[in-house]
């Protein structure tokens, strides 16, 4: 039974054509519901696949159903500050939460993925390139840089950033720069929630290996709920 005293959690992802990516994003919303029995969750997207966040929020608004839109995005960029902000702007019963990252728990997942890929966190000759999708929004780039700084605390070798589009440097350039700086091994840490277009592109970036995306992991569902709760506190 749903607890109608709690606003609906609208889990808003970018959207992907990758079937595994779609499944993992769907499972993330279900995991949040499992951690918070009675919470109603629904999915929305900013690109590629329906339903759009605009349509979902409009529908909830028409029935006067309170909602919190939580971006299933790792940094704040156009989709957060324009698409999602715009979707809730005309509906007083809806609010938007901040994106999932930066967050120390996400860095913990990144570290686990790196270790699983065979990277040695104590080896100063192993360089890490934190690879994000990329955005022209400086706030998004700063969020990724902040995440790299958090990861660097647990890593002996250098941690730098690279982007799939819109921001500099591109991931292949960041990998090449790490080698030129003396790294004996370069590992790309995929700062992506799920498989899809950007993760596929990382395989050709010239690194020694590429980590798996962040999902699935229960810590991400906990971050999702924290963003939901924080948005309600500020509402």
Describe what you observe in this structure.
With 235 residues, this protein is an alpha/beta fold. The chain has eight helices and eight strands. The strands form two sheets. Strands 2-1-3-4 form a four-stranded parallel beta sheet, with helices on both faces. The chain starts with 7 loop residues before the first strand and ends with a helix.
Name the overall outline.
Answer: elongated
The structural class is alpha/beta
Task: Work out the helicity level.
Answer: 40-55%
Strand order of the largest sheet: 2-1-3-4
Count every beta strand, where a strand is a DSSP E run of 2 or more residues.
Answer: 8
The low-confidence parts are none
Distance between the termini: 25 Å
Which strand-content bin applies to the residues? 15-25%
Please outline the major beta sheet: 4 strands, parallel
Average of pLDDT: 94
Write the layout of secondary structure elements.
Blueprint (H helix, E strand, L loop, with lengths): L7 E6 L5 H17 L5 E5 L7 H10 L4 E5 L6 H12 L4 E3 L7 H13 L9 E7 L5 H15 L6 E5 L7 H10 L4 E6 L6 H6 L6 E2 L7 H17 L1
Helix pairs in contact: 1-8, 2-3, 4-5
């Amino acid at each position: 039974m749903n607890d109608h005293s709690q606003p609906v959690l609208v889990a808003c992802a970018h959207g992907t054509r990758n079937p595994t990516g779609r499944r993992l994003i769907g499972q993330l919303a279900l995991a949040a519901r499992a951690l918070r029995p009675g919470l109603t969750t629904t999915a929305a997207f900013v690109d590629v696949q329906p339903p759009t966040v605009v349509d979902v929020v409009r529908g909830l608004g028409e029935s006067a159903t309170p909602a919190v839109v939580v971006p299933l995005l790792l940094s704040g960029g156009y989709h957060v500050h324009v698409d999602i902000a715009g979707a809730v702007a005309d509906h007083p019963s809806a609010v938007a939460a901040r994106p999932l990252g930066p967050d120390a728990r996400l860095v913990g997942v990144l570290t686990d993925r790196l270790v699983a890929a065979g990277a040695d966190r104590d080896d100063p000759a192993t360089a890490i390139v934190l690879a994000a999708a990329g955005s022209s929004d400086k706030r998004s780039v700063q969020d990724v840089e902040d995440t790299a700084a958090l990861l660097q605390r647990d890593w002996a070798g250098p941690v730098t950033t690279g982007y799939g589009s819109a921001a500099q440097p591109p991931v292949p350039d960041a990998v090449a720069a790490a080698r030129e700086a003396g790294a004996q091994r370069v590992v790309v840490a995929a700062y992506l929630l799920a498989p899809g277009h950007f993760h596929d592109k990382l395989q050709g970036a010239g690194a020694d290996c590429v980590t798996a995306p962040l999902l699935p992991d229960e810590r991400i569902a906990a971050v999702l709920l924290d963003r939901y709760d924080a948005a309600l506190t500020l509402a």
